[in-house]
Structure of Beta-glucosidase:
Amino acid sequence: MKALFIKGRLKSTMLVSALLTLSTALSGCVNDNEANITNVGANKAAKQDVAPAEDRLATVEQDVETLLAKMTLPEKVSLAHASGKFHINAIDRVGIPEMWLSDGPHGVRHQIERHTWASAGWSDDYATYLPHLTSVAASWDVEMARLHGQVLGAEARHRKKDFILGPGVNLARLPLYGRNFEYMGEDPILAATLVVPQIKAIQANDVAATVKHYALNTQELNRTGVNAKPDERTLREVYLPAFEAAVKEAGVLGMMGSYNQYYGTNANQSKHLIMDILKGEWGYQGVLLTDWHVDINTYDAAVNGLDLEMGTDVADYQDYFLAKPFLEMIQAGKIPESVADEKARRILRVQHTIGMYDENRLPGARNTKAHQAAARKIATEGVVLLKNDLVGAKAVLPLDIKKLKNILVLGPNADKKHGTGGGSSEVKSLYEVTPLAGLKAHFGEQVNITVMRARSSDLAAIASDYVESRHWTGTPAWNISYFVEKARLNLTEQSWIVDSKFKAIAPANASNIANTQYITMAAKIKPLMTGLHQLNVETLGNFQLKINDDIVITHQINAAESANAMNKSKVIALTHAIELIAGKSYSFEIEYDGSEHFTLGWNAPGELFASEAEYIAAAKQADVVIYFGGLSHGDDRESIDRPDMKLPNSQDEIISNLIAANEKTVVFLVAGSAVAMPWAAQANAIVWGWYGGMEAGHAFADILTGAVNPSGKMPITLPARLEDTAPIALNDYNAKESLYTEGVFIGYRWFEQQKIKPTFVFGHGLSYTKFTLTDIALSAASITADEGITVTAMLKNTGKVAGAEVVQLYLHDVESSVDRPAKELKGFTKVFLAPGESKQISISLNKRDLSFWDINTNDWLAEAGDFEVLLGTSLDQIKLKASFNYQQ
């Protein structure tokens, strides 16, 4: 496979080119059965008559002004707000078409009803479910970013969408953040480099990309109210570069504002973020739109640059802040009409740019073989081999099919599908291959695969398999209500909880009485088999369970127990057997009064779980054990942050037991955020797979068996403890305000500054082959402000199998007037090499790469002096160093 490089970036590969060629050939096919020779020929003939996009783009500004001049003030205002959940109405009088938006950073979302959040019930709104953007980031490959964008753009266009609401580039500041899985890791340069080709590929399909969330949306805890207050240097160096690249390099047409406040006002109406930076300094010409249900007001949003209000929680669209109230303010002279002109102008500019007035607008394509192949390719490129030690004379991975007879597969993600969860990123996938299905497809009848679900020694909550009720993000969940008093007359809060277990969060040093919480939890439960279900409860506090309004379990602490301090720490175990019918929906309701915790579990007919003795015995007999663990969208999801960094449902205990029972245990984690791994030192093989999309199972099997050599690198740091991360260590994570006290020391920069060793560092990832990096050279020993510098080196595959390596360039300012990280990622390149093959890599730096944001001049500043170039294959594997001098 030949690779070409420009400025250190992988330009193309034969496989990606083949995928895109096939995608073009199948353009317009809704399913595989339509991909025939007739369609291919017809599409090729049609393309010959399509006017080049340049012809359309040459007259955009003229066309916009011509149309704007014909519009009345109410018509202009009507373009500044939604007229449906995901659309803006047409203005037939002047020929303006209806405009449609869709969620979809990882695939086009299923069709929503015009005026509700309910599904429209379409049968033909399936889409390709792509690997999540964390997987793209883990590929460290601009071609994977481009391929992801190409599929997403083509499918959005085929679904007649005008805006696709992605990609996302907020940074993983905190492992607990519920939306880390939607974004591109913790480093601003990694995210900025990858978002540009993705945006360009989306928009090449005549669809507007929408980069989000601008800016500082780094937690879901009180996401609409938390006040982000970083200093200006932190804002500029860390949290804005990816957005800046989206505007300046990619020409992004859509920008979605964030939920949070910025120095006391919502980010969607911040003068500094929007008028000063986005539309001022950067010269952004596209549309700034809101997410749904943000905290804005009419005047500030109007005059400070918000263009499109998409989802305000009011009864009528005319009551939106940028609807009737906006019109009335203009008519009263409080806001100039030019403000409405500018918002309409930006909407019209996007419409003309993406070809909404062009009869030759591209048709798009959906659910093609090429798109499915692309999903598999992206997923494999993002898998990270974290650890692969020798057992005897051979590494655990790749699996040797010739020597395997029995594989034991366990873990909550072994046969779990993730496409329908997570929130606005959900996808109605045409299909989804689970890890277990992928293994079975790969091995066929050649290997015996035994599947178990292990139960820990702790009482487990009722498994999600039985939970029929859903959180709006698509996750099986229970509704939870908090009340002021035992009578439950005054509701204080209502939310959702994933499992039938509860742990009270109480203020420090408060009394037990003061901390008593009165909650009600409710869910619809649907048994899988008819028969006797043994309900099991462990509680500290008063507990009552109703099924279909009948009390089946109750425990009330009596006065003597309450007075006895020892009983406050004594867990009460309760059981009750009940006959339930398969497929029937039962209403479960729990009432709990207490300051501690409870768990409701059960033993159901056709038990899903194996006991500790059973799974350990099976592990000892297996040739290899593969545990597919990690998180799900019950943990990684919009609207809620995780409570801690632990693997849920006592996975750590089970993993430790498996490692002790069989040294050839492969721990394969599927997750979008960092998790603690207390067993990492004992494990011989650890793999990280992310949410890999519809082809995840095939991609994971490709990696495990060596059909594809892993080349992914971690785009996030994997801390040993939550307390090691900056926001927690600095006590800067709460529901009121985020001060970003760590400054520019996000992620790996913080760990290096504090000399904290994580479990796995940023940029880490192993291979089944070996590489050497030699012969570093700089294009100059000294440069000035108007000069760049190019770093070259030789990379060689010294192993026995073909594979790709990511060469990472970190920069160190030897002497600076401000605190700078010891290493800052400034460039990277991914190179594929056959065994014994060598290639020269080349990465270029410019003045901006040397600069920090100077708060005195309010501009970028590169100080004169020496800079050290550090080349390596991860943050802690620096192989080569060289220095140069910068003269102002």
The two ends are 43 Å apart (CA to CA). Residues 1-51, 507-514 have pLDDT under 50 and may be disordered. DSSP finds 23 helices and 40 strands in the chain. The domain at 464-603 is CATH 2.60.120.260 (Jelly Rolls).
